[in-house]
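Milestone M4 deliverable, item 7.
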Amino acid sequence: MSLVQFLEYLHLFVFLVGIVGIILAVVAVARGIAPVLWRLGSGLANRKIALFAKGENLPSLRNLLLDSKLIRGKNIIEVTSPGDIGRANTATVYIVFWHDWEDDIDAILDQKPDSCALIVYSPYDLAKIPSAQMKKLDGKRHTAVTNFRGRLLNDIITSMITTTD
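Output delivered:
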């Protein structure tokens, strides 16, 4: 076999390996990344978020969500009193301002389905969540506790990706 023939075969081999690599990359993206992007897009467009807050905390958190330009106002369900907890039954993400709802958290936990994400926001400058309540929150699926507004947005996005409608 001459050097020219060897180089032709080597070129063909490298070409085939490249084509197979491209095909595998497309399959990996289609199976791995595409479903995540689809779920995130669907979540941002369609999923309902129940916002459990009272007084001045409600517009503050609502504006946080709207100012991110990731969540539409029509997807936010506002729950301001224990008698209105039932309004949240169509939501797939619950956001609870801890200090407004600490006395009624059991009613929220009782209504929350397993497939629904619960994000408890407890600002660092207010009283900490008692350890008994933290243990109770930890016993529920898809639950996160955060102390920072930026982390709250991150937890919402993560919840939309990891939970289903």
